[in-house]
Write a structure and sequence with these properties.
This protein is α+β, with helices and mostly antiparallel strands. The chain is built from 3 helices and 4 strands. It has one domain: Alpha-Beta Plaits (2-Layer Sandwich), CATH 3.30.70.100. The chain has a 4-stranded antiparallel sheet with strand order 2-3-1-4.
């Protein structure tokens, strides 16, 4: 499996709007090869953290280059102070219960 871990620096007062944007923009849309994605609001940090898991690097790259994903990303960016930070790579161990 392959994917990315990312952080989101949300504009003040935009958390609820960001959640609604993410729910609306992703409803009924599962990119080809996507296994799962999650976003966490850490207890002791200002930035939210996310993880996206794909079956392969190719599926991850295809999603990143998809115009529909670019549209979703643009809507999300309206609620952020800066571009997310991204760490891409292969997942070497894990389990989905």
């Amino acid at each position: 499996m392959y994917g990315t871990i990312f952080s989101l620096d949300i504009k003040e007062g935009q958390e609820t709007a960001l959640l609604e944007t993410m729910k609306t923009a992703t409803a009924g849309r599962t990119p080809e090869g996507m296994v799962a994605w999650f976003v966490m609001k850490p207890d002791n940090e200002d930035k939210w953290l996310g993880v996206a898991i794909f079956e392969s690097k190719e599926a991850h790259i295809n999603n990143a280059n998809d115009p529909k994903q670019a549209e979703v990303f643009g809507k999300i960016m309206a609620h952020l102070n800066s571009d997310p930070t991204w760490t891409d790579g292969s997942y070497v161990i894990g389990e989905i219960a």
